[in-house]
Model the fold of this input.
Amino acid sequence: GAVSDYGVRDPFKLMEVAGYLGVETKDEEGERRPVNEIARDVALAALNEFGKIEGEVLNLKRAPAKRQQIWHDLGIAPRAIDREVVELLHRTHIGNDQDAEHILDQTMRCALGDGWGGSMLGTDLSDILFGTPSPVRSEANLGVLSEDKVNIVVHGHEPTLSEMIVAAAMDPEILEYAKSKGAKGIQLAGICCTANETLMRQGVPLAGNFLQQELAILTGAVEAMVVDIQCIFQGLVPLAEQYHTELITTSPKVKIEGATHIEFEESRALEIAKEIIRRAIDLFPKRGETTIPDIRSPLIPGFSHEYIDYALGGFYRGSLRPLNDAIMTGRIRGVVANIGCNNARVRHDELFHYVVTEFLKNDILVVETGCGAIASAKQGFMTPEAAMEYA
Ligand code: SF4
Done:
């Protein structure tokens, strides 16, 4: 392809996803097609899922047959990802759908399109490009920022640039440049969902979640905050202006007045990542007084579906059977997903803390992502020891 900085890191996952999307992995002679050709067809099939005009979201077939039947019986099986979003917007504009239950049906169809379509595809493609997560050690909370290294915080939701920043930060030339400016190295840290992406694949520590983005800058120790899309506070620019921090927007969809805009282009990904890191390094000598809270918690993230399968059954006999058995015998009473955002109307992370503690106390496994996961990480819930303490 035209983009040389990215490759297929997980060809097994590529083959699996090709199957879900109806992409042939073998040629007419029964030989495996070249990986890059399969990757291209998977990418095109994935793009087609967003705006196709016939059929329904292909990933629905990955749900249990009973569940698929329920969606079909209720008429809420999504047809295409964008289509359901646009239809929901249409219905809820003035003078359209005025029956609460009918609107709710479309809300569910849109949610299924977003989840089983967009989110699942996003995860699959990220795994193919950047590797399927497996457990890594890391740390969470503002204490991960460094007193003597250049601190770069990646913030937002997309892994494409942040993965390149991780790669660029390990470049010996870049590290030498940091040393030439008096820093001992480069410390990356994440905020929000971009943080989870770089955490679970690369072990990049978490600086915090949504309501901590300003606090990170308030430490006075952040040279650059690099943002992509979503959940970026408008107040970051005036706040960064009080410090030496540069706020850098990178998405063609998001510009913020007063921020530096360095637009991300996949074809120059590594080059742009290095440019951003060099700018941050240049700011290090301007750092003033810092207040980094001495607080951080260890965590072990990276329990992808594939890893759990492997952990429970091994390479040849991967299976969720031990988990099912434990649920059937009542040793584990179920699995819940705790996913989502912070809310400034309640004490920070308090609700996540409460519900996750109760789930653990009641022998319920908790699968987490989003800012809820970061809340639990800071709480120390994401370690094996937490099971002993709370369950
Ligand atoms: S979990 Fe919610 S608040 Fe947190 S980064 Fe994602 S979308 Fe934003």
Notes: The two ends are 49 Å apart (CA to CA). The pocket of iron/sulfur cluster is lined by residues 192-193, 209-210, 230-231, 340-342, 370-371 (CB under 6 Å). The chain has three domains: 11-130, 138-286, 302-390. Residues 100-130 form the longest helix (31 residues).
